[in-house]
Amino acid sequence: MPQADPTSELQAALAERILVLDGAMGTTIRSYGLDEAAARGSRYADNEKDLLNNGDILSITRPEIIGDIHKRFYEAGSDICETNTFSATGIAQSEFFVEDPREKGGRKDPEFFQKILDDSFLNDLAWEMNVESSRLCRKWADDIGSDTGVKRYVAGAIGPLTVSLTNSPDANDSGFRVVTFDQVLSAYKHQVRALIHGGCDILMVETIFDSLNAKAAVVGIQEVFAEDGLRLPIIISAAVGLGGETMISAQKVEALWNAFAHAKPLAIGLNCSLGPDLMLPHLEELSACAATCISCYPNAGLPNPLAPTGFDLEPHHMHDYMAEFAKAGLLNLAGGCCGNTPEHVAAIAKAVAKYAPREVPVIG
Questions:
Q1: How many CA atoms lie within 13 A of 323 on its CB side?
Q2: Within a domain: residue 177?
Q3: Angle between helices 120-148 and 90-97 (to 10 degrees)
Q4: H-type helices in the chain, by residue range?
Q5: What is the pTM of this model?
């Protein structure tokens, strides 16, 4: 069940020091060398589609691995770990469990996704994924927090979905959308309630590349708060391109802040997409305009299939970049996205420990 609202407690901590987020769940999962059979487990042994790339299913089929990953990140110095729920909605999970109508000449459209939203198997699966993922992360947050005497937090990860509300996939029909705003809203509300039920402290709308999808997530969070009589802090984090724009909706970071300021997020920030060097000017722009805390968890450089983690930067590189960001007064929360292992996070935690957090500006 939901924890008491930790907003004031987190705000006090953020005023004292830079809090550390975790690293990349997917990157770290791959280090365990799982094969298709191991990912499926006995429960999904007969599924028609491959599940090895469905990392969220491991909270159900291999909870000991997901729990171990949370444990390692908390031990590396993470104050906040995200739940293993990046794709834990019925809409996203349909990619792994439902036949794609395009394979037989059809198309995905609102009628198709209404069937997905009405599918009891997918609804139950999404609920279980989110609840169990929250519980796994909660256990290790509490255990490591108790052992070290440093409070640890759980952030419910709410990913961007595999569909877009902003753009049409049909070059001949610019008004066509595969899914409606209300359908995306419904999927997100189901996820939010399950994350809260599992015991998360924070809701993190992350890796935003379509601002309208993210808007549906934030509206869903606000509706759940109003309907269920509770409130938790929100973190909003976007993935941006080289020009500093969200990659589908092309919204620059100042516009991103203006679009989400009404939700009064605990923090807004940037993650994924770019390595820290390319992210820096966009982080500076966001820091200058946002009247709240700033989070930053970049990829470990650009993708490189020959590198051990699939990305170029090693822990000492991330240490140096994040130390530079912290020294410049740009950070309130720091961590790593794709390519960042527990070793990377330990280096990031060491890098930011000696610097004061960014002062949140009062912008009239």
A1: 13
A2: yes
A3: 110
A4: 7-16, 25-30, 36-40, 58-61, 63-76, 90-97, 110-117, 120-148, 181-198, 211-228, 253-260, 276-289, 315-327, 342-352
A5: 0.96
Question: Where does residue 308 rank: exposed (0-12), middle (13-18), buried (19+ CB within 10 A)?
Answer: exposed
| pLDDT tens, residue by residue, 100-118 | 999 999 999 999 999 999 9
Report if residue 363 sits inside a domain.
no
In a domain, 357, yes or no: no
Output the domain CATH number for residue 167.
3.20.20.330
Phi, psi of 332 (to 5 degrees): -115, -30
Could you tell me the residue range of the domain that residue 299 belongs to? 7-352
- How many independent structural domains does the chain possess? 1
8 Å CB contact between 178 and 166? no
Nearest to 331 by CA among 299, 360, 302, 362: 360
Evaluate whether residue 362 is within a structural domain.
no
Show Cβ contacts of residue 187 under 8 Å, excluding neighbours closer than 6 positions.
89, 90, 91, 117, 126, 161
Give the pLDDT of residue 250: 79
